[in-house]
From TrEMBL:
Entry-linked InterPro entries: Hexapeptide_acetyltransf (IPR051159), Trimer_LpxA-like_sf (IPR011004)
Organism: Cryobacterium levicorallinum
GO MF terms held by the record: transferase activity
Keywords recorded for this protein, A-Z: Transferase
Keyword Transferase set for record: yes
Family: Belongs to the transferase hexapeptide repeat family.
Name of this protein: Transferase hexapeptide (Six repeat-containing protein)
Superkingdom of the source species: Bacteria
Amino acid sequence: MVHEPSYSQNWELGHGTSVVTDGVSETVLARISITSGSNCSIDLSGLATLNTSLQIFMSDGCHLILGEGMMVNGALRLFMHEPSSITIGSHCLFGGGDVWTSDMHSILDKDTGERLNPAESIVIDDRVWLGAEVLILGGSRVGRDSVVAARSLVTGKTFPDNSVIGGQPAKVLRSNVVWDIRIR
């Protein structure tokens, strides 16, 4: 008889989907809910701390990479309703929020029928701190060593390294910064 790990009860994986969990404790894995389509790849091996929950939803052909030393302190939801990817760099800190690669519905040009809102992948570079209740939308890239203010709406732009960004929609509030997890 094969023993199924306790965390797998929260996972519904489509055919051909692979999940890498190297080095992640069963306690952390038990706080993760995954629903995936077919032929997805999920690399959770970088997840160091998960104090609340992580919900992952992926359609067919999606890819997720969580970088080394990732810390999550608030509920985090990652949604890929169409083929796309989310790549999160090393040593990132999340206060919780949502990351969406698509709008989940099509918006079409009335005359041409052209889709105006296709899914777009998201990149969060190394050492990014996302405050609580941040929403990151498709096509966004947050540069390394940056901070995203709580409740910001990041809408499909590329933000430079070493920035504080915030607002709805988010914009660069300050440049030439670094952050430290320790209180000084």
